Amino acid sequence: MAERSTAAVDVADNSGDEPLTAQADQSTADGVAKNRERDTDIDEAQGSGGADGLEKASPPELHSGHKLARRYRLEECVTRLDGFSSWRAVDEKLRRAVGVHILPADHARARSVLAAARSSALLGDPRFVQVLDAVDENDLVYVVHEWLPDATELTALLASGPLEVYDAYQMVTQVAAAMSAAHREGLAHLRLNPNAVLRTSSGQWRIRGLAVNAALRGISSDTPQRTDTEAIGALLYASLTQRWPYEDDAYGLSGLPKDVGLIAPDQVRAGVHRGLSELAMRALANDGATASRHESACTTPEELVKAIGEMPRIRPPEPSFTAPPDYQRTTYQQGTYGRQAPRPGAAQPVPTPPPPLQSRTGKVLKWAVSALLIAALGLGSWQLADALMEQGKTPEDNNQTQTTDGDDKSPVKPAAAKPIAISAARDFDPFGADGSEKPTDIGKVFDNNAATYWQTDYYLSADFGRLKSGVGVIVDLGRAQRVGKVTVTFQGHTSVELRAASGDPGAAPTTFDAYTKVAEAGGTTVTLKPGKELTSRYLLVWLTKLPLTDQGQYRGRVAEIKVTS
């Protein structure tokens, strides 16, 4: 099967350089990349830029405070290597921190870096650190990407020890799924190492430098899928053992003993999860070391995702509960405050309790209880006699009573709630760029099939990536009707508001302010009841908080909407 690496997209037509696109994948059991990820920061400092051997251009003279496009203010240089530099900067237009890679426009790899950045930006997968801009101007080429201040590199996490089993499982699951999606679009990473994988404060794993990091260093591979799969195996191995699965030390981790070969993680460290240990060995190029395990090697991220799916699911650990300390009685609480403490070992006489109710207070209490009992007996006898007298009345008396009271109006029982048919529905995204949110599936919200659903686009956080306040579905009841409640079934815990347009305006209002909030709730099956009587034709089911899916994305999924009177 042929595969293509766009770590550096073919731009021979634009620049005349030799394209860095990988050739057809000739995946074999031991196929590996030409530039296997075993380099360290020291290697980079010595100039191990890539396999193309091109002359390095001088890095542009830049300094803190310099502005690019009168918008990006450089703050701190974090890398200066091989003719390019990487900076932490501030986007003064949007007032947020960003990262910037900068290199001269005449750099041998400038065209390749631009093409790789643009290809990565088109992917739009939130599991990757997003490319925000790629510009060629004023003799400079620069790539602007997200800066995640709340994220921690895997390198820093491993500095304190191996990851917990559940954290390692989440890491390999999310990274493998993300890389599988990237390769389906023809994109490869080729520099997937502990510095490129980050964990956010919400527990989501994200990958930075897709295609761009390899293009900056001129790295290519004839087998990009195999290269990235082996890199994921190395990340899992390091997460389980706090060791780098090669002989050389790298990324602050000690390598394996020399001349021993690749050792399974559960043989390197006690207590390693057996299933994850086997998974790491299947992903690594280990010269047949997995043969004894009777499992085939994984040569692509997609095969790795399938192997993870076949494993028993690893559940998060139960939250620990610390029992409160035993209650300690003090000498004061025991009623001996101010008394002489007894000598240790001396037998203490046990005071004899007084006879019950022998004091004056006890006698008063006995008389009070007796009086209450007598009163209760008298009241009970009177009620019993009254009930017997009612039963002894003749039928004529009853008829007379009924005739006398016949003019009184009997209370009317409330009508039973009836389902209201939904005649139409449409998506509602008034704050989005295109004003639309997956309209093709909107009919699934009232098809009486909970297995189907309408879903939103994916976002970087539960609050829609802070891009908007929400999205929703407008339900048309055909005419103005009394609405008693609306039941919404979601996939995943979702926060939602019920809003209504007043009366029957004819056509559905197109502005958010035309809908008034009448109820709100959160959950997977939510019942929304208006606080007061509501008559309306158009209802808006407005999603305000989205759940995190198994793919590490935030998106809402509405399975069914039912309206009753």
Automatic annotation (TrEMBL):
Region (Disordered): 1-66, 310-359, 393-415
UniProt protein name: Serine/threonine protein kinase
Biased composition (Polar residues): 328-337
InterPro entries (UniProt xref): Galactose-bd-like_sf, Kinase-like_dom_sf
SUPFAM superfamilies assigned to the protein according to its UniProt record, in alphabetical order: Galactose-binding domain-like, Protein kinase-like (PK-like)
